[in-house]
Amino acid sequence: MIDALIFATLNGLLTGLLLFLLASGLTLIFSMMGVLNFAHASFHMLGAYCAWSIGQFTGFWPALLLAPLLVGGLGALVERYGLRHVHRAGHVAELVFTFGLAFVIEQAVQSFWGPDTKNYQPPALLDFPLFTLFGQDFPAYKAFMLLISLGIFIGLYAVLTRTRTGLIIQAATTHPQTVASLGHNLPLLHTLVFGAGSALAALAGVLAGPVLGTFPGMAATLGSIVFVIVVIGGLGSLTGALLASLLIGLLQSWAIAVDLGMPDLLHWLGVEFPVDHPLRDIWRLNLPQLAPVLPYLLLVLMLIFRPSGLFGRREG
Q1: 172 to each of 69, 167, 312, 313, how far by Cα in Å?
Q2: Cys staple from 166: which of 47, 160, 236, 279, with CB 3.0 to 4.6 Å?
Q3: Euclidean distance between CA atoms 91 and 43, whole angstroms
């Protein structure tokens, strides 16, 4: 039991930091532009596919750098020649635009790369067990993913709080007209931020592709979870996104590892539930079956008791 919990914790931290890497780009875009980008997970998928294609010629390491840059450039073009014009029509038009863009990217991926799962493997340099505990191996590549994700958080936090560019971005979040009147090119800043957020999503795809799989449905698989994280953490809060990502990653991982059935759980809570009860189907449920639902249950509870999220600012 202890070994299962230890590995569940390690896997939960890994999942949480990967989710943060994906959610950080969306948080950055929203905090600066006020745009909830429904196509954000699609850029994540593009990152994985571009890395797989580039890696066929250059290997993993150049692809790790080139794929996020390529997708980030595409994101910047989307903002410059699409989203910037839609922005004039309001937030609803922005949501519809990014929602449609997600479908366009998904269909483009299937048309260009096909519907099959790609054989995207970790680099040979990291394809070995870092350590063995209780007879189970922990891959070195997963430790590499942990370090990169943690490094991105530290880097982003430092840029946003310790540099002149970060201070301008924070000021533009609440006082855009003042920032523009001081001579800063606000439209260019929006383009760069949207491109950077897209690149972060792509980087998450490059790292996660060999572990979680590279297939056309990967955007749909993670898209809803990203918005859950952003809302729970607090819209626009980088620290909140990190904590919410870790919370969801650990919660799901522990639920899968602790194979408790509903009778065990209800007995632990002191609730009697006869087997012949009309709701007897609930009796057959176990925690691993409920694991995919837990983030959304947490979202509902957060919206009821703290709508602003963990670190969000309440408006009004």
Answers
A1: 24, 8, 17, 16
A2: 160
A3: 20
